[in-house]
Amino acid sequence: MNNNNENISLTKQEPCPDNNMALAIASTIATFFGCFIFGSIFGVMAIVYASKVSSYWNGGFHDEAKRYASKAKKWAIIGFAILILYWLIVIVSIISSSYQKSNFY
Question: 75 near 23, Cβ under 8 Å?
């Protein structure tokens, strides 16, 4: 039996990777209100990379799209890490200053 569909490739096309835009926006907002302009730089970089994912994927540049999705996630996580580090420093500074004041009396 001869199948007419022999020439049709039935490969499953992989879906577009998650561009991590929600994570990038959350990182930008959290770092802007948490540690001001310095921290939001990382979130903005994440947004820039996240915005490129779909266009590169639709253009057929799948490896680049995956790389940009990965970079967007990395920069958003760095933004959150900066935010956590900033607040740890603030908390330690407050605790140490209150400890030093209490030793003077």
Answer: no
pLDDT, tens digit, 9 for 90 and up, residues 62-94:
999 999 999 999 999 999 999 999 999 999 999
Please provide residue 47's backbone torsions phi and psi, each rounded to the nearest 5 degrees. Answer: -65, -40
Residues 6+ apart with CB under 8 A from 17: 53, 57, 65, 66, 69
Domain boundaries, the chain: 21-99
In this structure, the number of other CB atoms found within 10 A of the CB of residue 20 comes to: 25
pTM of the model: 0.78
At 105 the three-state DSSP class reads coil
Predicted confidence (pLDDT) per residue in 22-32, tens digit: 999 999 999 99
Q: How far apart are CA 102 and CA 105, in angstroms?
A: 6
Give the tokens for residue 17.
């990777």
- Those residues whose C-beta lies under 8 Å from the C-beta of residue 28, and which sit 6 or more positions away, are 40, 43, 44, 46, 47, 79
